[in-house]
Amino acid sequence: MDLFKIRQEKLTLFHKNRKKETIKKEIPSHVIETCESCHTNVSVKELKSNHFVCPECGYHFKIDAHERISLLCDEFKEVDKKFITKNIENFPEYDKKLEISQKRTKLNEAVICGIGKIGDVSCAMAMMDSGFMMGSMGSVVGEKITRLVELADKKKYPLLISCTSGGARMQEGILSLVQMAKTSAAIKRFSENGGLYISLLTHPTTGGVSASFAMLGDIILAEPNCLVGFAGKRVIENTIKEKLPENFQKAEFMLEKGFIDRIVPRKELKETLIKILKMHGGHS
Amino acid sequence: MNFEELEKKIAQLRIQKEMLELEDSKRFQIDQEIYELEKEAVQNLEPWDRLTIARALDRPKAQDYIQYLFTDFIELHGDRRFGDDSSILGGIAYFENKPVTVIAQSKGKSLEENIQKNFGMVSPEGYRKALRLAKQAEKFHRPIITIVDTPGAYPGMGAEERGQAQAIAECLYTFSDIKTPVICVVISEGGSGGALAFSVADHIVMLENAVYSILSPEGFASILWKDETRAKEAASVMKMTSFDLKEKGIIDHIVKEPFGGAQKYFPMVTEELRRYLAKELEELGKKKIEQIVQKRYQKFREMGIPAWKM
Ligand SMILES: [Zn+2]
After folding, report:
1. A243 at interface of B, judged by CB pairs closer than 8 A
2. pTM to 2 decimal places
3. What residue ranges do the domains of chain A occupy?
4. Arch. (CATH architecture) of A63-279
């Protein structure tokens, strides 16, 4: 099968449909996605009703922050919505990249923070979005997450962070690197004060995010088959001069190595979270 | 003239001065000329030139600083979990007659030594050794001095399998409220989360020619521009010099280096560093530990504020 051709056709279809979008908001049933794993074509409508899990093989498609909220929350009140990144270093093309991401995702930055209800349990939640500059952590992401952790500490909410990120944001240089320390310090305090932090790893969780708050959960859950690791695959291959095994840095691999508590399929995620939250005395 | 050309010219003048039998007045004139050229050269230093100085094989390494700054250094090995990472040199010693814990990222001074020390690239067991020594320091109320000199955490297969991300995260987490004073000295190269893991400190001091960045310029160019050969250009946009970091409030102090770097006249650097460490440790020693930890939290809490608006 010529995958490239299929992709091309899909793109043409996508562009055609985008023109119509202004008139018709509902997803047309003929918009299809191809499953990366089993290459089955599935209509987006069907995917959506299945939480973006391939009905054929169970492959988990990436979902954005809003989709994640609707998957998990019965109520959600966003906080710190208005934070916007300033390109203080005038890093070349950074403004443009931010603008493109903002337009595409309708988000101000790569994370949505808020207080939500999962079932009837209130929870402070940060939902990262890999569609926004690969979910990279700059000063705004670091600040929003830190504020949320501090809010959870103050109000005695449990904390859930749904992680997806390529790591620290290159364009902000050292300021984005130190966000790793800032968020980790906030989580340390929260933990010392008895707070419950559930970290949910989704595809992909790598670099500076995996090497900070993502790996600091009291309980670390992961979606099936998601990529979890510090260094990028290409960098490792260049260092060791050999090809890495297929399952390397996958959630299943990290579970086997002892770095993840549980792999939870998306369908069971909400139910699992409710159970854990309730066992820790979570209430509305 | 760029730095390289100026350096060459200075070297020529020095030879001239040594080789020829000159009158004192002529010698004096050459000295003056060298002085002026050095001043110009320092002003012309590009970030890349500083990185080259910082990475030079003959530049003093952590082991040299340990030898000059501390007495009775006793190296302590191992993470008690998996192994002993020789890219980390840790132990206990006296600094100005007081016991301290030293945890250093240690590059080698020859290719052979560098292979043994993995070019200063730390593995999870190295970070876990650091964590063990840090907790030991906390228990015995010894201040901790960390030394940063790494291009980054080791991107290897075993390192991933043993939880590189988790090990770094735990360093950030633990150092953020460890109940003993911590001072971090960046002697040459500080790259990525691998360096940050040793930098959650009450004071961070950098040598003038040291660099500190989110990633090595090679990695940065490769990721952002898919072209590793643009590393020099990357070094310029990355704002990675000690002066850049001081301006941003990430570091607290810069230790001056002689022309050409610490490698040219080491005692000048160690003496200034000794004075700085002595002064800051004394100041920290006067404070309550809760106050120190609170200030450390606040310091990192405020980082990044200029980069957002509401
Ligand atoms: Zn499938």
Report:
1. no
2. 0.92
3. 1-61, 63-279
4. Alpha-Beta Complex (3.90)
